[in-house]
Amino acid sequence: MAQPLERLDNLIDQLRNAIAQDRWEAVAQLAAQVQPAIEPVMAELAAGDTDPGVVQERLTELQSLCDQAQTGAEGYRAEALAALKGLSRTRAAARSYEDVSSRRNG
To answer: Residue 2's pLDDT is what?
Structure first.
């Protein structure tokens, strides 16, 4: 297997593991490496040094992982937003209680 294809396979494995472990910061860092990893593979493909079927297989797998990452990240974002809204409600309730309490004691 050619070196650029090995690097792409390694990146795919890292992405798969990061997604499975819900490590979204790692997914974002790895996603930034996708295009630089694909470019040498595509250059090898254009030169006829890599089997087009193998490249298509990797690109299909990479697309699937990107779809999974997007779905997972959107879910994580929704959970974080719900948690922030809950904190905001808790803060508002605490302020209201503090206001009522200070009026009674004041």
So the answer is: 61
pLDDT over 80 (residue 97): no
* Rounded Cα distance, 91 and 83, in Å: 12
**Encoded tokens for 41:** 């593979």
Structure tokens at 93: 């309730």
Residues 30, 14 contacting (CB under 8 angstroms):
yes
Containing domain of residue 76, as a range? 3-105
- How far is residue 66's CA from residue 39's CA, in Å, rounded to a whole number? 17
Number of structural domains found in the chain: 1
Of 28-42, 62-76, 79-93, which gets the smallest average pLDDT? 79-93
- The Cα 39–Cα 82 span in angstroms is 39
Torsion sign across C-alpha atoms 35, 66, 28, 58: negative
